[in-house]
Design brief:
There is one protein chain. The chain is an alpha+beta fold. It has one domain (38-250). It is 36% helix and 23% strand. The protein has helices at residues 3-23, 55-79, 136-139, 164-177, 182-193, 232-237, 242-250, and strands at residues 38-40, 43-44, 86-96, 100-110, 118-127, 144-146, 160-162, 199-204, 209-214, 228-230. The strands form three sheets. The chain has a five-stranded antiparallel sheet. Strands 3-4-5 form a three-stranded antiparallel sheet, with helices on one face.
Length: 253
């Protein structure tokens, strides 16, 4: 190679060396949570990522604190409706990475004047690379994502998805999981198999997959709202992004 050729090769190598790290997006690893705190009596605070070191983790912590403020505002409005009102919630974090953090909130509430108490979830999933809520529509084809409004109140902060390709699989998994409880299946089958409705969705390290839970069950039939797990193999068949699949395969509870 002549002198000019060596110079050209060196320049190409330099450019590639500089561009490589900028173009590559490193995988986001597992995060650690700070010790749990009580927000008010009967309600845990949402978690915080301990010692956040990236803009993404700082952004996630800020949003979790914002979610707590939304919840406290809703709680105050509910309690003002009468002495019989109450709001409680439990908080868990089903996945701490890699790639995604999920937070599961389970409410038990009654606001005076309502017809009955209610139990319902809020599910928050964050992308640990960007700090933004998970982009399910970008991770899974033929899925429609419904994001909460910017002014969402407590109980309405979850993103949900409509996923027709998964609906029949969901119903089959629920039926298989019902086992010998034929009475339960006969009572719930029509609701489970109905062709419309959206799901709560979140990654769960302990359950080793993507959890879907129906968001269309009426109050009187909440017992029919079983959640099911879509395994990495299920997601691969459904064409999900490899990043999501790899994260679930690498997750540890």
């Amino acid at each position: 190679m002549d002198r000019l050729g060596r110079i050209a090769a060196a320049l190409v190598g330099l450019v590639l060396g500089l561009a490589g790290p900028a173009l590559a997006q490193p995988a986001a690893g597992v995060v650690r949570l700070a010790p749990a705190k009580l927000l008010v009596r009967g309600a845990d605070a949402l978690p915080s990522i301990a010692a956040p070191k990236t803009p993404a983790t700082v952004r996630i912590n800020a949003d979790l604190r914002r979610q707590d403020r939304i919840w406290l505002k809703g709680r105050a409005e509910c309690l003002r409706r009468g002495k019989d009102s109450y709001i409680e919630r439990g908080v868990s974090a089903p996945m701490l990475g890699p790639e995604f953090l999920s937070v599961e909130v389970r409410h038990d509430a009654y606001c005076a004047g309502a017809a009955h108490p209610n139990a319902f979830p809020d599910i928050l999933t964050y992308d640990l690379t960007t700090g933004a809520p998970a982009n399910w529509a970008g991770l899974i084809p033929r899925l429609v994502q419904h994001d909460p409004r910017g002014d969402a109140e407590w109980g309405d902060v979850s993103a949900t998805v409509t996923w027709p390709a998964a609906h029949k699989i969901y119903a089959a998994k629920v039926r298989a999981g019902s086992g010998t409880d034929r009475e339960w299946w006969s009572e719930c089958r029509e609701l489970v198999e109905q062709g419309e409705g959206d799901f709560y969705i979140w990654p769960d390290a302990k359950r080793r997959g993507l959890v879907l839970e129906p968001n269309w069950m009426p109050h009187a039939a909440q017992a029919c709202g079983d959640s099911v797990v879509f395994s990495p193999a299920d997601l691969r068949r459904l064409g999900a992004d490899r990043r999501l699949i790899r994260a679930l395969e690498a997750a540890r509870s």
